[in-house]
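dumping these here so i dont lose them again. two proteins, back to back, each one seq then structure tokens. dont judge the mess
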Amino acid sequence: MTHPEPPSTADGFESWPTGRLLSTAARLVEHAWEEVLREHDVTHAGLIALHTLTSGARSQRDLARACQVTDQTMSRTVERLARGGFVQRETDPADERRVRVTITDAGRDTYAQLLAREQDDAALTAVVSDPAGLRRMLVELIRARRAPGP
């Protein structure tokens, strides 16, 4: 069996396969976005949790499921968000074994600031000729690759 020749590195990234380009672009955007999140003392996981909580309080377990992470991961995320004053944890009056998580006013404000920044990311949109088209293609790719959920 013959193996295809790897793309030449002399040409730079223009000759890379699409998957490698997507992976590299994602890492570069993620690193830049991490700096923005760090300025607000929020992680990627924390931002997703805040987004989910804007629709209302949830049990920590339901929040983990909605964010597609383990209970243990969500526990650490909620702990960090609570320390930052972005969420409150309370015992569920209907079931004292459950913890309900609620977004605070500070959490809503921070989420709104980050959402505005994310939607108006000049560093990304300035270099893309059709940001809306790129977004549509990425959504299509994610939908096509996403594993069927419960």
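---- next one ----
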Amino acid sequence: MKNILLLLTSILTMSYALPSKAEWFEVTGSASVLTSKSAARSHALEDAAYQAMLFSGADISRLKDLKTFLENDEKHYQFSGSEIRSIEVIKEKKKNGKIYITTRIDIYPSANSCHIGQYKKTFMTSEITIDSPQQAVMGKVYQLGEDLSTVFSRQLDKESQSFVSVGNSHIRIDKRQPDVVKMIADDHGAQYIFSGNITDLSATVEQNLLKKDTINRQFAIEVAVLDGKTGQTVYNNNYREVAQWDFPKTSEVDTQSARFWTSAFGEMVLRVNRDMMLDLENQFACKMTLPQIVSINNNRISMDLGRIHGVKKGDKLELWHTGSFIDQNGLPRNKVSKTEITLTVARVYEQNAELTIDQPQLLNSIQIGDVMHKVDIK
């Protein structure tokens, strides 16, 4: 299953126009022809643009801004106000039910994108559930939710610019229990928890007299993100797509197999999976990443973010005290208050780092559980 995300990767070759600023990429994007050739063409162009943006370090969360334009059947696309300045279609071909489009893409990566100035945020993926298991009878795909959780977690690790996955959990998250959510997030070191439930896997059969029946299958999913500090839901979204089901009605389909993930239906699910990640990038990339003080030993202070999150020696951080209070309605609330204390990263490890306080006389003011925010040094 570890190769799933590699199966649909585009062919990418890079050439440089102006190495210090602009780059151009020759990319071949691909997509299966599902509902129409025009939709497949648009998806192939998206695939090419995504691979070029990912490789160049451009902000992948802005890909959605281009989607409407890529639905037009053009040979040349120009954009303003985007890191992608132009897309030129060099070659198109259709083979074995897929469309391949070779493009030349000009990119001007911005140095001001949020994912460049922020540490990566930690995400935990809870088990994705299937609302109606009876809809999973065709293909016996009862494990699709669990396998999709793993695929999504791995995609965050491999391709996300703003997040680090701390793994996926078989624990089912109840959004009505924020205290439990906070406990689970704390146990996994997660700033956010991603949860989802598949709401539709129904299929329709088009009967044909002269050839085999065509089975079209729905895929709908509702997703939510919960804040690990408060336990509250901070994001909701839902997605729906349909694709041809290439397997016999009575066969059992292994949702961990390459056969499933390279099928028309599997490819569609992976595309939805990528859209989910891009929407999270768009929603959370510019939100504060809040590393936490996890230990204080004499003058040695440790935080829970490290090299994999983008922490570097010499980084400067501001300290915020955390606390809680009871509001006028008797409900517990969390609060943070900014201090004048700053700290400097002295030593970096894979998943944590050691800090020194810039105001040693204020050392006793620092508490385990306090959070910090990276300061941009101009």
